[in-house]
Amino acid sequence: MDLNRLAVRARLRSPWESIDLGVVLARRQWWPLFIVWLLPATLVFGATALLLWDSPGWAIFLVWWLKPVYDRLPLLIASRALFGEKMPAGAALKQFFSVNRRDWLAWLSWRRLSPTRSFDMPVTLLEQSSGPARGARIGVLHRKHASAATWLTLTGYHLEVILGLALAALIYLLIPEQVEIDWMPFLSSGAIWLQWALNGLYLLVMAAVAPFYVVCGFSLYIGRRIELEAWDIEIQFRNLVERQRRSEKTAPLAAQLMLLCALGIFAATPALQARAETGGPPEQAREQIDEILAGENFHRMETVKGWRLKEFKREDEAFPEWLIALLEWLESLSADESPEPNGTSWGPLVAGLLEVLLWIGAIGLAIYLLWHYREQLGRALKFRKKPPREKKAAPETLFGLDVRQSSLPADVCAEVLRLWQQGEQRAGLGLLYRATLSHLIEDYLFEFGDHLTERECARLVEHRRGGNQEQPPVSSALSSFVQQLTTAWQQLAYAHRAPETARVQALCGQWQEVFAHD
Amino acid sequence: MLDTAYSIETPEGIDLKAQAAGPVPRILAYAVDVFYRSLILLALGIALAFADRAGMGIWLLCSFLLEWFYPVFFEVVRNGQTPGKKAFGLIVVNDNLTPVSWGASLLRNLLRFADFLPFGYAAGTLSMVLNKNFQRLGDMAAGTLVVYRQAGGQRPELPKVAPLAPPRGLQLQDQLAVISLAERHGELSEARQRELAGLLEPVTGKSGETGLQYLRAVGCWLLGSR
User: Fold this and answer.
1) TM spans, by residue (chain A) (predicted)?
2) In the structure, what pLDDT confidence band is assigned to residue B129 with cuts at 50, 70 and 90?
3) What pLDDT band is residue A380 in, cutting at 50, 70 and 90?
4) Does A17 sit within 8 Å of B148, measured CB to CB?
5) Which residue of A18, A20, A143 to mutate against B (max B Cβ within 10 Å)?
6) At residue B142, does pLDDT exceed 90?
7) Dihedral angle over CA of A102, A108, A113, A119, nearest 10
8) What is the distance between the alpha carbons of residues B151 and A17, in angstroms, rounded to a whole number?
């Protein structure tokens, strides 16, 4: 047994997966398996047709009973194929009698109805064991796979019946409609030739299913052996040893090549010689490598701890109280109605239940619709939710001017005029301007920022004049004041053109008017 | 190498693997579902027998819903597992191994009538046997697949040995084999384990019992015990 030639992947499989693998194996070489099963069975069928023509039921029973005899050749072919050996159907047929020599009587008598037939057959045919040794072996194999083998047999049996019926149904479906057959007398007559035709169909179906049944059982057996004997480990270990051996064989060659290269380099650059001498021979280098690999750097461990949500199993809910109450209420509902004379008191209860369900459905639908169209409804009813205004931090400086309320003097106008008289025109008008900005930000909630210019600020004030529900309205007096002040400030700040004193005084007067409430 | 594995590569270059489930477990799972469905219908029939002809109508309605939507409901809501599939550890997935969607589940279940032809799901069985991934006709149309649910389960108990660092040059597959040897120490016979350890003598330099103990220690190390 050379495991390296194994045609299937050796790995641990559940019994069901082993059976699936059997389907794949059988599918690959279904024809030869079908032929070697069908030919002997057809011979028996022919013989029974000659001898038992009058009792077709017994004939097909005999053919069916001899199944273990035909099963052995497909098994032989499958076992060869497992190790990549192709066995033609002809060669297999020649071995018909030699494979059937062992234990044939047991298989045809007390083991015939064994539900694990295809799983046990390899022990007889391939391991060639019988007697107590076989019993012990079967015991070990059955420990985990017996139930799957039994289900396989049951499934196979039912498949045969169902596929037989399906084949009959297919033939029936393919008879043209014009051919009118009166089926009832035809079927009930029990004509012998009709029964033989059905027997023939059943034989074909048996032969079609048998390869799958036999190979699935064989695959189950192989799966169990892979598990018991660790074929997967053996194959991998052999691969590893082989790889190691090959790399050792090629290692000296590689070393020579490297030496050659090294010599070439040394010849070209004599200066390197001093360093090369400290390297030492390859064995020493390997030792060093091993040392480093075994060292701390390659065995660093890290433990990560943390909390994470576990998958909780949901506990089964107890029967809820409200449901009981509801049922009781329903019962009382039906009890109110006078019992009908014919005694079926279930009608009202069912009707009541349905009514309640309908009401629940209607109310649920209404709630769902309300929820789904809540926005449209809200808009229609003018329930405008105020969008949550995040209070933006008011800027502390604008255009390099301090606009905090706290930085302003108590009497802005007096201070402005005082500065103006002292000749500090820029400081004076600047104070007025930033006092205005500051009030606009604090009282009128303007969101000025560094991204705006003075003119844009003035334009914002102008836009708000029409009124806006969410923010305090701006009077036209304030708006025109801001326009004038901005113009004056821009001319002073950027063009160095100071306004006349009278104009500054007028602006101060306007300032007091528009911010009078302070 | 023959196997029943189904693998698919995600756009991120990750190989996802699953084991496609073949006809036998699927037929059995279907039988379990049929059993449950008949139980429900039987109970309903008894309960509705009192409601006379209306009961008959409701029963027919229920049997229609059960026949066509029982699998759809469980496949979509219960992680691709009807009770029968759950009993056999099977799960329905899309063919890119994502959870099955409403549309796909509906399609694969409505197409059961095609799989049923000409009688008793003969077409479906044939299709499952012949298809590479054991898909029946409805599966092929809906782009779905039945695979085994990989159970997390408990790792087997490890042998009680002090862990040792592995020798150099072990590839991933070799490491897995060593781990497997350590994990199956209770299942394999001692003689067989010694034989397997003996195979690795050229690599480990140890044979027999010491070699086996060494490999078990390496296996424990590879599984993270220190």
Assistant:
1) 30-53, 151-175, 195-222, 253-272, 349-371
2) very high
3) confident
4) yes
5) A20
6) yes
7) 20
8) 14
H runs (alpha helix) in A373-404:
374-380
Sign of CA dihedral A35, A36, A39, A44: negative
Which of A7, A228, A346 is opposite residue B2, by nearest beta carbon?
A7
Contact A166, A30 (CB under 8 A): no
3-state SS of A288-347 is: HHHHHHHCHHHHCCCCCCCCCCCCCCCCCCCCCHHHHHHHHHHHHHHHHCCCCCCCCCHH
pLDDT tens digits, B189-220: 889 999 888 888 888 888 888 889 999 999 98
User: How confident is residue A331, by pLDDT bands cut at 50, 70 and 90?
Assistant: confident
Domain boundaries, chain A: 3-176+189-229, 236-287, 321-336+346-380, 397-514
DSSP A138-193: HHHHHHHHHHHHHHHHHHHHHHHHHHHHHHHHHHHHHS-TTS---HHHHHHTT-HH
CB distance A478 to A461 below 8 Å:
yes
**A30-51 and A56-65 are packed helices; what angle lies between their axes, rounded to 10 degrees?**
140
Please, are residues B125 and B137 in contact by the beta-carbon 8 Å criterion?
no
- For residues A19 and A213, the answer to whether their CB atoms sit within 8 Å is no
Lowest mean pLDDT among A122-131, A429-438, A478-487, B154-163: B154-163
Rounded alpha-carbon distances, angstroms, from residue A229 to A144, A505, B191, B195, B220: 14, 108, 10, 10, 21
A-B C-beta contacts closer than 8 Å: 144
d(Cα A79, Cα A222) in Å, to the nearest integer? 10
What span, in angstroms and rounded, lies between the C-alpha atoms of A433 and A428? 9
Average pLDDT, chain A: 84
Interface test with A, best of B24, B129, B147 (most A CBs within 10 A): B24
A254 in contact with chain B, both atoms CB, cutoff 8 A: no
Taking residues A34-49, report their average pLDDT: 94
Q: Are A224 and A116 in contact (CB under 8 A)?
A: no
Among A241-245, A266-270, A401-405, B71-75, which stretch is predicted with the lowest mean pLDDT?
A: A266-270
ipTM, two decimals: 0.92
Of A243-252, A284-293, B107-116, minimum mean pLDDT range: A243-252
Under the banding of pLDDT at 50, 70 and 90, the label for residue B62 is very high
Top-confidence range, A165-179, A280-294, B62-76: B62-76
Scan residues 166-205 of A and list those with Cβ closer than 8 Å to B.
166-170, 173
Secondary-structure percent of chain B, ordered helix, strand, coil, rounded to 5: 60, 10, 30
